[in-house]
Amino acid sequence: MPDRSTRPAVGSLDDEDYPAYTMGRAAEMLGVTPAFLRALGENRLITPLRSEGGHRRYSRYQLRIAARARALVDEGTHVEAACRIIILEDQLEEAQRINEQLRTRDTAS
Predict the structure, then answer these.
(1) Which residues in 19-108 belong to E strands, given as ranges?
(2) CATH architecture for segment(s) 14-108
(3) What is the dihedral of CA 87, 91, 96, 101, to 10 degrees?
(4) Quick check: 87 and 45 in contact, CB under 8 A?
C-alpha cells in the first residue's frame, strides 16, 4: 500500500493547476507530439512543473492553453506565432478586465 503522505490530497484532483499529467499523457490527450509541448515551453506559453525526477508535468489549465495553440497551428499558424497570439490575447483580456473594474469603481464614487 502506498504511503498516504506521497499521495495527492483529494482536493488536488479538483485543482486545475495541479500538475497531474505527464508529458506523454498530455501529448496523447491533445493529439500532439511531446516536441510540440516542448515548443510551447520554449516559446514561454506554458511552463510545466517538474517532478522530483525532472519529468515535465502539466495541469488541466496548461492543457487548455496548449489546446488553443494546437487549434491555431491546425489552422496554419506557426507555433511561435500561435504562442505569441495567445499571450497577447490573454494580456488584452486582463487589461480589459482591469479597465472595467476601474470604470465600475469610478462610477460608484
Answers:
(1) 21-22, 49-50, 56-58
(2) Orthogonal Bundle (1.10)
(3) 130
(4) yes
How far apart CA 46 and CA 83 sit, in angstroms, is 9
Separation between Cα atoms, residue 26 and residue 100, nearest integer Å: 35
Mean pLDDT of 90-96: 97
Looking at residue 8, the DSSP 8-state letter turns out to be P
How confident is the model at residue 107, as a pLDDT? 84
Domain ranges of the chain: 14-108
| In contact, 39 and 77? CB cutoff 8 Å | no
One-letter amino acid at 42 equals E
What integer pLDDT is reported at residue 10 of this predicted model?
Answer: 54
Instruction: Look at residues 67, 52, 69, 62 and name the one whose alpha carbon lies nearest to residue 21.
Output: 62
- Three cell numbers at 18? 495541479
Using one digit for the tens of pLDDT, what is the confidence trace for 12-53? 668 899 999 999 999 999 999 999 999 999 999 999 999 899
